[in-house]
Write a structure and sequence with these properties.
Elements lengths: L1 H5 L11 H113 L4
Length: about 130
Amino acid sequence: MRTALARKQESEGYNMEPAEERQLLTQVGELRADVRHLQSDVTDIKARFDKVDIKFEKVDERFEKVDERFNEVDERFNKVDERLDKIRDSIDGVKESISGVKELIVSAKLWAYGLYVGLAASLLYIIAKSAKWI
């Protein structure tokens, strides 16, 4: 069992020729240059994202200012609504007083009709007395 654990992995034992080794080194160098190029591109992209984030923050600030302005407008509309409610209440009060005046006019008409009938009756009575009908 120890022999199974102690076994080492065997390498393929591939020996490179010096030309292949130089070629491999140049390829590794090119890969490193490409990786550095990619790293610089990623850095540029991060910088651009930072600029975009700053612009988004500015846009957010502008939206907050606009939101504050809308809140001010909402407050003004609420004040106008309150004033309109007061005006409506006063108009309702005027309507109630007008309906009270209408009722008074109706009762005054009834009194006027009664007085008119009484006046006519007394006038007829005076005429009948003066003509000696009664």
